[in-house]
Amino acid sequence: MTHAHAVPDTGAARAVQEEAAEELAPLIGRRAALRACGVPQATWYRKNRKSPAPVRPMTPRKVHPAALSAAERDHVRGVLNERFADAAPATAYFTLLDEGTYLASQSTMYRILRTHGEVGRDRRRQATHPLWPSWLNPSAPRAPATPSRPSRSDA
């Protein structure tokens, strides 16, 4: 069964389609009117339902069996912040692999740091630079003027 969509599916166009379906419904029936106007039946019934939407219970997400425990996540974070504070988690991952140690995947390392707000910015300690170089800073104290040397013509 094909549905003819003569009008593009935009908000205003959909309103026109639904209005046309409402006018046709008493003449040819709701289902035929919706099909003729290109309005999906489910959409019409969802918008025009008489009862409230069914309540869907929120079920808590199950922890994946392979997920790291809180202690393991703390250990990974400690290693990343102590030994690799100035390095990206990818660098730490490969360095640890070269040493024969596997703590977690790269993405898990990034995820652990992201939950603590330690990723997304540069992890290195960077020097801060003054806003103005000292010779351009208008509020900096001025050095006393050095006396000019006498010219040869003066001597």
UniProtKB/TrEMBL annotation:
Residues 138-155 have a biased composition (Low complexity). Residues 119-155 are annotated as: Disordered. It comes from the Bacteria. This is Helix-turn-helix domain-containing protein. The lineage of its organism: Bacteria, Bacillati, Actinomycetota, Actinomycetes, Streptosporangiales.
